[in-house]
Specification:
By secondary structure, the protein is α/β, with parallel strands linked by helices. It has 16 helices and ten strands. The chain binds guanosine-5'-triphosphate and magnesium ion. Magnesium ion (MG) binds next to helix 2.
């Protein structure tokens, strides 16, 4: 009697220990970062990916699915208690409900855990039972990666550089007038600091809307709960020499330093440094539509964003990342459903060219990279229409007013240099073509059981990002 109850509790003890040990040893976690500049398609990408990984009828490009090895995929509580949960259910309801619409803009980091029960592949398949693999998806704004460059710059360097860069921009007029009138050597006074910061963040917002991508510090655009706090109440002003205590210059420099240590560094430490796999989403079609300046700006922003993935670029980050590495990076041009599939290879080429410099370096550092064009949620169908004797490959979709329309966006060049060359050269407009863009609404869906929402190459993206681990 005594013996049996003793052994019972022993066994139970072993079971509990066994559970936690097996979780650590045998339940691998993949941490997938999803980033991109504002409106690049992060929320739609994650929502559709998670829906399509649960209902995998359209995921034949994912090898584990094709081999029938995924027994189940289900949402679980995420491991980080202080990060907001990605609002999957509401975003999915927006996209696939009776009156489909795009989800609202999101402004902060969020996370979701999807767990798989998979049967092992190859030799082990007959020997082992199903195992659990967790996929933690982290959504964060690409603008936050741009802030990495601030870590190397003093307030004085940053001020001079920023004022110089924005000098010719109409959006910056009001702010520049204020900044030039400021007296950095005068005693700090809060209302001056506030009006400068307000004018600067108004400029950043206007610049982003006008198609500029170099809009840092990133948190000025997405302040969240830091709104109005001193770490976001600074701006570049023309300064000279060393600041004396109590001056506006001194206080601005102090807040800039606080922004770096209390906003930028914690993000890299708590989120960025833990990512294994990364997808960088790019609205390349949107930039092409806006014109050469937007394309050149986007190319530069991509290079800056990607420098975060280049170990050695920043001493502080290198130290933080010792022994850790992002293993795979996917560069994906989103919203490819705006183009007939005949043009998709050209979009992919443009995507490759846009990120070439940065990719070469990331490759060098040992990360595998790939470029792809995809649509996380396909909102259009394809058709060929004849126009003035020519056959135009068009797409058809629903407009915001509910009407349906066919649309021909223009022909992307075979050689990406035809776009990137003029963009680098500072051209004001595309010479030989015009690229339209149409705001299609998500289509009304009737999904067969087992099918997720329609997409283009989302399965290929999933295979590259996580296929080797499930
Ligand atoms: N046609 C089409 N449009 C898309 C697709 N994905 C995104 N869009 C469009 O791009 C917009 C932005 O998508 P989001 O997923 O909200 O982008 P985001 O990067 O999360 O944006 P923020 O949260 O504002 O940074 C949507 O409102 C749609 O208009 C797609 O697969 N197809
Ligand atoms: Mg979003």
């Amino acid at each position: 009697m005594v013996i049996s109850s003793l052994s019972d509790s022993l066994v139970r003890g072993f079971e509990t220990v066994g559970d936690s040990v097996s979780e650590a040893l045998f339940e691998p976690v993949i941490r997938l970062g999803v980033t991109g500049l504002a409106r690049s398609g992060k929320t739609v990408f994650i929502t559709s990916l998670v829906a399509n990984l649960q209902d995998r009828g359209r995921m034949t490009g994912l090898v584990a699915q094709r081999e029938g090895r995924i027994n189940a995929a289900y949402l679980q509580p995420q491991p980080d208690d202080t990060v907001p949960r990605f609002d999957y259910e509401n975003h999915l309801a927006a996209l696939t409900g009776p009156r489909p619409h795009w989800p609202d803009s999101t402004r902060a980091v969020s996370e979701l855990r999807l767990s798989f029960k998979v049967r092992p592949a190859g030799l082990l398949s007959g020997l082992q039972g199903p195992r659990t693999v967790h996929l933690d998806i982290v959504d964060y704004p690409g603008e936050w990666l741009l802030d990495l460059a601030l870590l190397d710059k003093s307030y004085e360097e940053w001020s001079a550089e920023t004022l110089n860069r924005i000098a010719g921009r109409a959006e910056a007029d009001a702010f520049l007038t204020l900044a030039k009138a400021a007296e950095p050597r005068a005693d700090h006074d809060e209302s001056t600091a506030q009006s400068l910061a307000k004018a600067f963040s108004d400029y950043l917002n206007a610049a982003r809307d006008a198609g500029y991508y170099d809009c840092t510090p990133g948190r000025f655009l997405l302040p969240g709960d830091l709104s109005g706090s001193p770490v976001l109440t600074f701006a570049p002003v023309p300064v000279e020499g060393k600041p004396h205590r109590r001056s506006l210059h001194h206080e601005m420099a102090r807040r800039y330093a606080a922004y770096k240590s209390q906003v930028v560094k914690p993000f890299f430490r708590d989120h960025f440094s833990r990512i294994d796999r990364q997808v960088v989403l790019v609205d390349a079609l949107g930039a092409i539509h806006k014109g050469p300046q937007a394309v050149e700006d986007m190319r530069r922003a991509m290079a800056d964003i990607l420098s975060a993935f280049r170990p050695g670029r920043n001493a502080w980050l290198s130290q933080l990342l010792v022994g850790k590495r992002v293993e795979r990076i996917l560069f994906a041009a989103t919203k490819a459903d705006h183009l007939h599939h005949l043009q998709h290879p050209r979009l992919t080429n443009i995507m490759e060219a846009l990120t070439r410099d940065a990719r070469d370096r990331a490759n060098f550092a040992g990360a595998q990279t790939a470029a792809l064009s995809l649509a996380a949620l396909r909102a259009t169908t394809e058709e060929i229409r004849s126009h003035q004797g020519a056959d135009l490959p068009c797409v058809r979709g629903t407009l915001p007013d509910g009407k349906h329309a066919a649309f021909y966006p223009g022909e992307l060049p075979e050689d990406p240099a035809r776009l990137l060359g003029p963009a680098r050269g500072g051209a004001g407009a595309w010479l030989d073509a015009d690229y339209g863009f149409m705001a299609f609404e998500p289509a009304q869906l009737t999904l067969r059981p087992g099918d997720g929402p329609p997409h283009i190459r989302l399965d290929r993206a999933a295979q590259f990002l996580i296929g080797d681990r499930i």
